[in-house]
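Exercise: predict the fold of this chain.
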Amino acid sequence: YINSLPKKVPNSPLYWDFEKLSKLKGTHALDEIAKFKATFVKSYCHIYFRLEKQIEVAIMKRSTFTYDAFAWAYSIVYSRQNTIMLPNSQNKPTPACALVPVFDLLNHEQNADITT
């Protein structure tokens, strides 16, 4: 499934350059993208430094945890996540975000409802 995902996500705001972002000057969208990017950078830094502190038990080497690789993964999950119900510790259904193979391809008609 992972290999079938796009190698680039150019429509993700994480990849937008200054020229593209400058077209949004004065809009609410620019503020939201700034918050999105700030959350992304905080997440990246948090995980990066956690890997440094827990290198002996980390599931990934810090050298492979690059900004670009994380931007790709973050963009893929953010653009393709679906809410599913999973049992919690009390065995009650709880919403969780997940990548569901093929499901992300089903929501591509014009005017379709989009969930994030």
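Check your answer against the key: The beta strands are 82-87, 93-98.
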